[in-house]
Design brief:
Number of strands: 2
Helix content: 40-55%
Distance between the termini: 54 Å
Structural class: mainly alpha
């Protein structure tokens, strides 16, 4: 049977094998990226809604590496970046996102 506390997400992730835990944590990260971008777009009145699949598509497009071309993996510190930032009229759409490392995203800023 199921452990008594299996309905807690952390217990379900903790009880899974390593690959399942990584997959579950990555899905949570992608979902959070989409939610955060959608909330910010709504607050700023920008068009577009991102889904978890849009984030996965951006991650897969760069094969899990930083989309800027620096060659570093985004597995540990990937951040969603709007290619054309909201501040410059960018939309919250799948064709306007990429995944960058934190340091590359900070360096890019509002460019």
């Amino acid at each position: 049977g199921r452990p008594a506390n299996a309905d807690r997400p952390t217990d379900m992730v903790g009880g899974a094998n390593h690959c399942e835990r990584v997959r579950a944590l990555r899905a949570m990260a992608f979902s959070l990226m989409a939610y955060t971008a959608n909330l910010k777009a709504l607050q700023l009145g920008r068009d577009g809604v991102l889904t978890e699949d849009d984030i996965i598509g951006a991650w897969m497009a760069s094969h899990g590496d930083c989309a800027c071309g620096c060659g570093r993996s985004v597995a540990q510190n990937g951040q969603l970046d709007h290619i054309v930032p909201f501040g410059r009229g960018g939309l919250n759409t799948a064709d306007n996102i990429q995944i960058l490392t934190r340091s590359c995203n900070m360096r890019k800023g509002n460019q």
